[in-house]
Design brief:
The chain is an alpha+beta fold and about 325 residues long. Helices cover about 40% and strands about 20% of the residues. The protein contains eleven helices and 14 strands. A hairpin with an 8-residue loop joins strand 4 and strand 5.
Amino acid sequence: TWLLKKRESRTVRLIGIAGVGVLMVLFLVNVIPLVTGNGGRVFITREIPTDYARFNEFVQSKPEFFRILGVPSDSRWISHGLQHPQQSAVYATEGVWNEYLPDAGTRESWQNVLVLLQQPIANKLFDMSSIRYFMVQLSGSAGGESTFGDYGADRAQYIETLDRLPYLKRMQIDTDELVVYENDGAVGLFCISDTPTLLGSTGECKDVSFERIGAGQYDVMIPDTIRPSYLIMTESYHAQWRLRAGHVHLPQALFSPDYFLPEQDHVKTDTGFNAFKIDPSMRGVMSVLFVPDAYAWAGNVMTIIVLVSCCVVDLRFGRRMV
């Protein structure tokens, strides 16, 4: 038995030494280029092109919510976040907008972008998708991105197509080569509509003010209405987006069965977004919550409680155990 334990101890020690050796090798592989001055071959310094920097300044000066559509794709140089998300035209036509393209599978993705831009429903689709600005990326040599080599059409073809669209206005924002268009009909993140059938409606979806409370949580100000209507949220539809009259308090939201408005009043719009049915009695503050984020919040609270409890127990009884 003693010999067996000694052999096991030696095996564990050898495994530990081998593990440390592997970590040392990985450490040296990454450190040697820095020590020898060859780090430039591993880390390439890139500077943001001036045009993108100017466009970022323009975007950040706008407090309202909107989306930016990168044509044909998004750019790594655009600083975007929750208030001004960026979207790729190519990826959108391959995903959420694919259903609006006849015979999409018979064309390359870049061709579908050009076709979609000229579809009769395009203007309404972009309006209801909160796409305020269209940005045609710089060429590879100017922007350091190989977008146009990857997506077929040359840059001039995208610009010529966008120039012909009556619902877009080409902007002058002090950029030399970066081309930007404005779609002034784009709605915000929340708006009020008479119907969830947005593409086929001739009515207007009126913007309403909102406040972002946290990840997946918004307070929306509902104006007085004289007939039933729908609160449209231009985020991809998910059944776990829920609406409550008044403010949300997270502990109650997780454990009260009737805390939110009925699930049957939450439907999917024809643009793939969320629509909540509201009646004239609902006015003032309404709260929209993505329920899984609330459970994540609860999980974080529980983690903190357990961590603090472990620390207290260790400080209180740790010395006695030793």
